[in-house]
Every structure is written in C-alpha cells, then in structure tokens.
C-alpha cells in the first residue's frame, strides 16, 4: 500500500490555502497547515503549526516528516521582498535539510513580464525554487475572482468609478485553481508546469460593468489613464494565458454565487 502523502501548506489561512486544505484532505493527504497565528480551536483533520518565514520561526518543526510542501505564503500587500523572496529562500533551505520530495511553488501568470515590484519578487522566488537543490514544481495562476471582487468593493461607494478599464485579466475561481494545483501535490516534482487560467480574458471595464449590474449599484465607469510600462503590460494582456483556460466558472457566475451567499447570511 502506498503511504499517505504528508503535505505542508504554507499560507494555509489565505484565499488559496483555505481552498487547498479541504481538497488535500479529500484527496487523502495528511495535512499540516501553517500560519503565523494558527487557530487555537481543535481541528481533528488538519494539524496546525506556527510558521513565520520572515524569521524562520517554526520552520524545522513545520517541515519535519513532510513529503510535499505547497508554498502559498505571500505578502502581496506587505514586504514581499522579505516574505516572498527571502522567506522562500529560507523555506527551501529548511526543505532541503528535511529531504522534502517536492516543493510546489504557487506563482502568478506574467511575473516575468509585468514590471510590478510584487511580481518581480514572485519571479525572484520562482528562480530561488528553480535553482534550489530541492525537487520542485512551479505553477502560475491568474488572478482569483475573489481578488477582483475585493478590488471592486473598494471603489463601490465612490460616486464615479475611475478604473483602468482597458486592463485585461483572466480571473479564475480559487477552488478551480486549487484543483489544478492539487494535481501537482505529489512526491514527483514536475518543474515548471502549464499556467492555470480562468475561462475568459476580460477587460476591467467588462468586469466592473458586470459587478455593477449584479449589485444594482448605479455608478458611471470612466477610464483612469494609467501611464507607464506596468499599465501597458496589463493592457496588452501580459498577465493572461488565453491558451490555458483551465477554470470554467465565469466572472458573472462566480459573482452571482457570491452575492447570493452574502444575501443568505
Ligand atoms: N490572489 C490571487 O489572485 C492570486 C492569483 C494567482 C496566484 N496567487 C498566488 O497564490 C499564493 C496565495 O495567494 P493568496 O491570495 O491565497 O494570498 P493571501 O490570501 O494574501 O494569503 C497569504 C498567506 O500568507 C501567509 N503569510 C503572510 N506572511 C507570512 C509569513 N511571514 N510567514 C508565513 N506565512 C505568511 C498568511 O498567513 P497568516 O497571516 O495566517 O500567517 C496568509 O495565509 C500567493 O503566492 C500568490 O502570489 C494569488
């Protein structure tokens, strides 16, 4: 009988981590979930551990007896150089010492082409993974629907929505992204694997208009001119992978479900 795979998820409290935990359990993994502040309540299914990749707190304990790591810890709104670059380097060193068989690194489509500092840090983290002696897999996904939703929620109350309407993105349901990432959570490293994208490439104008229709908030959407190479990259669709439409849930379908469950609460 093949022994169960023991899998550590970093960033286990995050958007992706929350989607990965139940799927890993369902797939028969022994799941260790890491957070800087693990929940104190008992969780009979998942073993929670404390981990801070910034200073290495809990790294050795988190990696003990682990076969596979899904590294989803990240600081998109914080010090991503410290967390994503140096934290990943620290994790890799410890994973090497612990003889981990596969570190699955979750990255973002376009990190090598969009000159955004968070993306540059993700690319440096990818390189650290690729150059490490630890066997690894690098999987890039497009933006999650929930990420787009959160951004639109921040403008929703403003009387006029000034948005970079021509930006092109390809959002995906996080559960569908997690399903795709789960395929690589095996003892066999796969190297750089095909991108994971949502069903459609959409402009921000289209996404915002669908949000406006679904929420019934009547606001004009106007184009916010954004100069520079980062904006140009988003306009030209650099952060999309139209040949890799892995997800099937459209933005409108996801939005409908999200608003319905909010109304039931
Ligand atoms: N969001 C998207 O649209 C998207 C799209 C494609 C790819 N990705 C990638 O997918 C991964 C997960 O994204 P996400 O949206 O799930 O991120 P998220 O919701 O922001 O969660 C990030 C997680 O990182 C943990 N974390 C932050 N600093 C840490 C530290 N110093 N040490 C240990 N853990 C730390 C946080 O856990 P605690 O606070 O509990 O410690 C949190 O659970 C990221 O690498 C991201 O680049 C995201």
Description:
With 265 residues, the chain is of the alpha/beta class. It has a domain at 6-142 and 174-192: Rossmann fold. The chain contains nine helices and eleven strands. The strands form three sheets. A seven-stranded parallel β-sheet has the order 3-2-1-4-5-6-9, sandwiched between helices. The protein has a two-stranded parallel ribbon with strand order 7-11. It is globular. InterPro entries: ComplexI_NDUFA9_subunit (IPR051207), NAD(P)-bd_dom (IPR016040), NAD(P)-bd_dom_sf (IPR036291). Residues 11-144 form the NAD(P)-binding domain. It comes from Natrialba swarupiae.
Structural features:
single chain; 265 residues; Rossmann fold; NAD(P)-bd_dom; NAD(P)-bd_dom_sf; binds NADP nicotinamide-adenine-dinucleotide phosphate; 11 strands; globular; alpha/beta
Can you name the CATH architecture of the domain at 6-142 and 174-192?
3-Layer(aba) Sandwich
Fraction in helix = 25-40%
Taking the alpha carbons of the first and last residues, their distance comes to: 44 Å
For the report, how would you describe the main beta sheet?
Answer: 7 strands, parallel
Please indicate the percent range of residues in DSSP E strands (runs of 2 or more).
15-25%
- Distinct small molecules bound, one entry per kind: NADP nicotinamide-adenine-dinucleotide phosphate
For CATH, the homologous superfamily of the domain at 6-142 and 174-192 is named as: NAD(P)-binding Rossmann-like Domain
What is Rg?
19 Å
Report the principal-axis shape.
globular
CATH class of the domain at 6-142 and 174-192: Alpha Beta
